[in-house]
């Protein structure tokens, strides 16, 4: 596993150099299915470099990446890559973004790195070995109850086309008097839960590349991850509740269920 770790760090570091080279400069920006869901030439350059590094060591491994990747190889190994998580932030020179890389082996996430080169925040975890922030071991917060919670969330693009009721859940927590933030990078959000800055995160309609590395980091930091009903979560699921694992988790499940039930009655 140590060799995979070295390759992961090399790939993240090389991608980070590209992100810093282009940050707050002029570059090409395109749009995906939804108008404000951006993709930049830097996303593509970063992803290409990550894949180049991985395949220079492991040419037979699969890569699942936001802008493409290569899943055509017969391998038990899948590198799950987000070349820039927080692309909209990056495109506007807001320094809340990161490179996210996870390694899945036979369906299990074994390694994960989330790296914001602007703030020099590097989170890493190996399954069964704990979670680290710049080589310092991290743990989740000890906040017990939701009333004392500091929450973070995100909103999917295209709510005008397919409403997942994100706003109703957000409003519910805000009406409870809770501080809720929206930073624009799910990977960073979850890592901030892992190191105790936030107590809980929830979001709809994420992809594996958004969460795979941070998911492992949070678990290794002592957190808990489920779907909104408290059921088993996998990184290919589309809803995630990630917390410090204390009473706050079940309280949030109850609040999410309550809002869904109220919506169903309408």
SSE layout and pairings?
Blueprint: H1 2-22, E1 29-31, E2 38-40, H2 41-57, E3 62-65, E4 68-70, E5 77-85, H3 87-91, E6 98-105, E7 108-116, E8 121-126, E9 131-133, E10 136-137, E11 151-153, H4 166-175, E12 180-181, H5 186-194, E13 200-204, H6 208-220, E14 224-226, E15 239-243, H7 247-265
Parallel strand pairs: 3-5, 11-12, 11-13
Antiparallel strand pairs: 1-2, 3-4, 5-6, 6-7, 7-8, 8-9, 9-10, 13-15, 14-15
- Give the termini distance in whole angstroms: 52 Å
- The DSSP helix count reads 7
Query: What is the C-alpha radius of gyration, as a whole number of Å?
Result: 18 Å
- CATH architectural label of the largest domain: 2-Layer Sandwich
Please list the strands of the largest sheet in the order they lie side by side: 4-3-5-6-7-8-9-10
State the major sheet.
8 strands, mixed
**Overall geometry:** globular
Which properties best describe this structure?
266 residues; alpha+beta; Fructose-1,6-Bisphosphatase, Chain A, domain 1; D-Maltodextrin-Binding Protein, domain 2; 2 domains; 8-stranded mixed sheet; 5-stranded mixed sheet; 7 helices; 35% helix; globular
Written description of the protein model:
The protein is an alpha+beta fold and about 270 residues long. It folds into 2 domains: about 1-135, Fructose-1,6-Bisphosphatase, Chain A, domain 1 (2-Layer Sandwich), CATH 3.30.540; about 145-265, D-Maltodextrin-Binding Protein, domain 2 (3-Layer(aba) Sandwich), CATH 3.40.190.80. Helices cover about 35% and strands about 25% of the residues. It has 7 helices and 15 strands. It has helices spanning about 1-20, 40-55, 85-90, 165-175, 185-195, 210-220, 245-265; strands at about 30, 40, 60-65, 70, 75-85, 100-105, 110-115, 120-125, 130-135, 135, 150-155, 180, 200-205, 225, 240-245. The strands form 3 sheets. It has an 8-stranded mixed β-sheet, sandwiched between helices. It has a 5-stranded mixed β-sheet with strand order 12-11-13-15-14, with helices on both faces. Strand 7 and strand 8 form a beta hairpin. Helix 1 (about 1-20) packs antiparallel against helix 2, helix 4 (about 165-175) packs across helix 7 and helix 5 (about 185-195) runs parallel beside helix 6 (about 210-220). It is globular.
């Amino acid at each position: 596993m140590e060799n995979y770790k070295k390759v992961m760090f090399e790939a993240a570091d090389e991608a980070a150099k590209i992100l810093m080279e282009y940050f707050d400069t002029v570059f090409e920006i395109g749009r995906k299915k939804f108008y404000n869901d951006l993709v930049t030439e830097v996303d593509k350059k970063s992803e290409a470099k990550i894949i180049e590094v991985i395949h220079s060591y492991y040419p037979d491994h699969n890569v699942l990446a936001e802008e493409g990747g290569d899943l055509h190889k017969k391998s038990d190994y899948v590198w799950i890559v987000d070349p820039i998580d927080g692309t909209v932030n990056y495109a506007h020179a807001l320094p809340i973004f990161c490179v996210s890389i996870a390694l899945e082996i036979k369906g299990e996430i074994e390694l994960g790195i989330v790296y914001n080169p602007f703030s020099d925040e590097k989170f890493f975890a190996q399954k069964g070995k704990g979670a680290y922030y710049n080589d310092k071991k991290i743990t989740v917060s000890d906040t017990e109850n939701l009333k004392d919670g500091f929450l973070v969330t995100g909103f999917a693009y295209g709510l005008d086309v397919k409403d997942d009721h994100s706003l109703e859940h957000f409003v519910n927590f805000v009406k409870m008097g809770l501080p809720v933030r929206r930073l624009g990078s799910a990977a960073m959000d979850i890592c901030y839960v892992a190191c105790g800055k936030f107590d809980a995160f929830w979001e709809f309609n994420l992809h594996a590349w958004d969460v795979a590395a941070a998911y492992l980091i949070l678990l290794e930091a002592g957190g808990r991850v489920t779907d909104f009903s408290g059921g088993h979560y996998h990184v290919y699921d589309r809803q995630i509740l990630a917390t410090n694992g204390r009473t706050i988790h079940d309280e949030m499940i109850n609040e999410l269920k309550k809002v869904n039930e109220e919506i169903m009655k309408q």
